[in-house]
Design brief:
The structure holds 2 protein chains of 2 kinds. By secondary structure, chain A is of the alpha+beta class. Chain A has 4 helices and 5 strands, in the order H-E-E-H-H-E-E-E-H. Chain A is globular and about 45 Å long. Chain A has a 5-stranded antiparallel sheet, with helices on both faces. Helices cover 33% and strands 26% of the residues of chain A. By secondary structure, chain B is α+β, with helices and mostly antiparallel strands. In chain B, strands 6-5-9-8-7 form a 5-stranded antiparallel sheet, sandwiched between helices. In chain B, strand 7 and strand 8 form a beta hairpin. In chain B, helix 1 packs across helix 5, helix 2 crosses helix 5 and helix 5 packs across helix 6. The C terminus of chain B is likely disordered. The chains are: A alpha+beta, B alpha+beta. Strand 3 of chain A pairs antiparallel with strand 7 of chain B.
Chain lengths: 121, 299
């Protein structure tokens, strides 16, 4: 597994329903990941009272599901990412890192790392 | 300038019943068959002229101010009524649009005409919404459309104008922000979260935004809820981006007390907008701090 120190990205695979951390990129779990795990379902679930499929029918007919695929939360100091697992429908990958570089580069680092974690979990 | 709001009502969003009636009226426009051009009549009470789901003109029978009054009043120095009425008579005789003739003759600027038309149309809609005329009695199709696209309004634009009156400075700031931040092909709008309003108050819409009023309200609700939850993760959350499908991403952000939502129809558009917003978050710490100090969405 990748060390948390080499790129500053902490990530974990979590159960969407329970918020339990299933696997982590480092031995000690970053407390921010635990909060991300706890809020993952609420953040990723599309509010059932909002019919996004109808809203965006003209833009992308048949696109989208009841869950967002990925969610990025940005603050002045940190970037947090939640990404639905491609192989496990019950799981989500969560990551957090300092907001210190260009966002595109940062997101690609995060995505690479969560892919590694997903593959090894 | 006088207002057509009932006493005690300062904006559509300040009165739940009026907001509901206004949304109902605008919904009639949005649900006309695609491409329809014509007049949506509300009995003797008034009419809304529509072209391809955009409002070209509206009038209510009990309106106090005509377009001529608004144009004369808002011009600096005030226009001579006689000059405007001469143009009006000529246009009526020739069957040509009066507004365009006033702009072409240099009597008013394009921006002034647009502002007057928007105000007139909004006043008419408020009159209709405040009255009994909520259900159209007839839709008469017009074979010939061709309204100047510079002077027609989307339903979301009308709602923003009606709701944003009470917070005009914030609405102006939001419009500037939308035009400076949004990248091509991206639709967006700005909202306020006010304690008294039961839902978000839409105060500005990006130019060309085709979202229906119900869509803007639903997306604002999603943004508010997402910020509430995201703030549990990071109390200083400024931007939330949610990828919904292969191509569509919703991006919500906030600056001071204004919330914004953008609908990005391509990955490239969302990547570009998100990078811009992330850069702003890190390079504008002063502005960001003032946003944080307001707490949850500025409530």
């Amino acid at each position: 597994m990748t060390s948390a120190q080499d790129d500053g990205v902490s990530c974990a695979l979590v159960c969407v329903k329970t918020g339990v951390v299933l696997a982590s990129s480092e031995a000690g779990i970053d407390p921010r990941l635990e909060v991300l795990a706890a809020t993952a379902e609420e953040l990723l679930q599309v509010d059932s009272s909002i019919d996004f499929a109808a809203l965006f029918a003209e833009l992308e007919p048949g696109g989208g599901t009841a869950h967002f695929r990925e969610l990025v939360v940005i603050s002045a100091t940190r970037v947090h990412v939640l990404s639905r697992s491609r192989t496990r429908p019950d799981a989500t990958l969560v990551a957090t890192t300092a907001h210190t570089q260009k966002l595109g580069l940062l997101l690609s680092t995060v995505r690479k790392k969560v892919a590694q974690l997903e593959a090894s979990a | 300038m006088s207002s057509d709001f009932m006493p005690g009502i300062t904006s559509v969003s300040s009165n739940a019943l009026l907001l509901s009636s206004t949304l109902r009226l605008l919904h009639h426009v949005e649900t006309l068959p695609s491409g329809s051009t014509g007049a949506l009549a509300f009995g003797e009470d008034g009419v809304i002229l529509v072209e391809k789901k955009r409002v070209c003109w509206a009038i209510a029978s009990d309106m106090r101010q005509r377009l001529t009054d608004l144009l004369c009043e808002q011009h600096e120095p005030p226009l001579e009524r006689g000059v405007v009425e001469q143009v009006f008579k000529r246009c009526k005789r020739d069957g040509t649009p009066m507004g365009e003739a006033l702009v072409a003759g240099g009597l008013v600027s394009e921006a002034d005409l647009r502002a007057a038309l928007l105000r007139h149309t909004c006043e008419a809609i408020v009159r209709l919404a405040q009255g009994r005329a909520l259900t159209p009695t007839q839709f008469t199709r017009h074979e010939k459309g061709g309204y100047d696209p510079r002077f027609v309004f989307t339903t979301a634009e009308l709602l923003a104008s009606l709701s944003g009156r009470r917070r005009r400075e914030l609405a102006d700031e939001a419009r500037k922000q939308l035009s400076s931040v949004l990248v091509p092909d991206v639709s967006g709008f700005a909202y306020l979260r006010e304690a008294l309003a039961r839902q978000a108050v839409i105060i500005a819409v990006a130019k060309g935004c085709e979202l229906a009023v119900s869509a803007t309200l639903e997306l604002a609700r999603w943004a508010m809820r997402s910020f509430d939850v995201a703030c549990q993760v990071d109390a200083d959350t400024r931007v939330v981006a949610a990828t919904w499908s292969e191509r569509i991403t919703l991006i919500a952000w906030r600056e001071s007390e204004i919330g914004y939502v953008a609908v990005c129809p391509t990955r490239a558009a969302s990547a570009l907008l998100l990078s811009q917003l992330a850069l702003r978050v890190t390079t504008e710490p002063e502005r960001s701090r003032s946003a944080t100090s307001l707490g949850k969405e500025g409530r």
